[in-house]
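Figure S4 source data
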Amino acid sequence: MGFSRKIALVLALCMAILHFSHEDEQSGNQPEEYSINAHSGIRRVLSACPSAGTSQQAILDAHNKVRKEIPGLEPMTWNASVAKFAEEYASERKKDCGLVHSDTNIYGENIATGAGAMTILDAINMWVSEKDDYNYETNSCTPGKMCGHYTQVIWKNSTTLGCALSNCVKNDGIFITCNYYPPGNFIGTKPY
């Protein structure tokens, strides 16, 4: 079977899964707009079924575009083990969409929550937007601002990643997590 036929079959399977998982929803319940929060995550597993057009490559490209802006940073690669961890944690958060980090010290982690049509790329863009609040000279955030999600994306030693998205049961929310190995964001150490 050719590569393009395999892709077509995977996409057809994903569409069928999405169709049956949303079959009982009434039309009009899904908001057209979405809201996002920097610490959230979702259950759809990208390694098996790209969600809403978000492929592993698109996720890597989004991270690596930012990393390319800093001299000496190598591009990240997708890691099945890291993606499996992300999938399992996103699945745990499916019950409540809680903006809660996992207890891992093995992986770095960015999380986000949202509603409606939020995607993993939306979450990445949100994390990267913290760049404006990061001071490269002092390796610190603008007072009163957050920049740790951005520094995780550019963390020099973080070379692999995996992300997942879950549709939450209670509130039509979305939970997204991207995990990174080795972890970053150690206080007092420059990320790049």
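Figure S5 source data
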Amino acid sequence: MRNLPRLAFVLFIGTAVTIFCTLLLSSGFLTADKKSSASRKGQVFIGEEREENKIFAPTLGPLNVSQQFLKMASLDAHLLRRGFTNEEIGSMSPLGKWLLAPEGTPPPQSNTNKFYLILIWKYGQFLERRHIRRFTSTKFSPWDQCSVQNCMLSYDENDLQRADAMVFHLHFTKSPSELPVRSRTDQRWIFLTDESPFHTFLHGNQKLSHYDGLFNWSMSYRMDSDVPVPYGRTIRASDSSPIKQWTAIVRTSKTKLVAVMGSNCSGRNGRWSYVKALKSFLRSDLDILGRCLDGNRTICPGHFDQDCTALSAYKFYLSFENSNCEEYLTEKVFWNAYHKYAVPIIMGASRRDCRRLLPPHSFLYADDFADANALADYLKYLDRDDERYLEYHKWRDYYRVINEHGYFGSISKHYCRICEALNYNSVALKVYTKLERFWSKANDCSPAGA
């Protein structure tokens, strides 16, 4: 068996399990109230809901066991080709796998036609600025372009007992005492964080262990979250025929070399020291926008509120995050670089994360260069060789970039993803008994790229 290719092995296992489960079903061995338990990365599964509580959408009907396993085997095989390991794939929810599937892949089978109430605890009005208004004066539907429409959003704490899901934004939570008393075991408690593990909490000297045993689901930019909300995604395009429209855009709009924009002038990875060194080599070829390192504060005011159209003129963008943590790729990559037809130069997530989550040959990685001087020399070389530079854009023929962060007017899919998770993810309830096994600055972050 070890000599079989990984893809053939996955399909073999999927087929074997399909036959086994079909035999079990035909023999009546599977019962509705059968219990299951498991533990993975601090998650304890505490049982499945009874079958009478599962109502399938009548318009679609449930997929049979064979169809379900074949569909999941296909998604797993696609993720293997992207570079994920079997263990990583096993840690992903059905929603997470679907979000990385090729364009046009149907969503997972819905487990219900129930109507869900989602309660955003305490900070709903503040979060509305990004996830509903998208930093504008307009209110957008949280279900805009969502694959499901059977959810309602509430900020009213009087809905505590009625809510099917509760969302707690850890960045603003001051202590566990802010959380309500729980009275329903079937209510999904979800912790939300858009920041890296270094910046999970804004208030006080808190520890994740203070919240052990409270949450059922995770919600973060990482794809192994129960509710993945990445800042952006790149997926294989459905049309396999190359479209060269990007070539004209890149050839005509790129009049400057490299830029960086920022308002947070700190970072545990020494990013601004690197920018300072790079500036000493590139001089006028590197433009610093924002308040850091005496940058230009007038060309792009508003930061998240308004799109910085000036970035469209640059060939490269320094996508330097404030932390080097697992899968931490933000709008700096997906909007400031890819959306602007620029090549991102990445400091943040690991090189391996970038290879799994981003299109091939679409980025430069800062740690691949001996120092800032070596990077500067390579950028100048690419600036002189148009054809070599254009090779970093050829992926645009085969991949699509999807921005979903809510900044600069882009759509936010946070609340849609919760609704989708309620529809698509396993109905088995679980608890994060040890949060730091899933979310940890010690285990998930490093001072430098790897």
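The chain is about 30% helix and 15% strand. The first strand starts at residue 39 and ends at 40.
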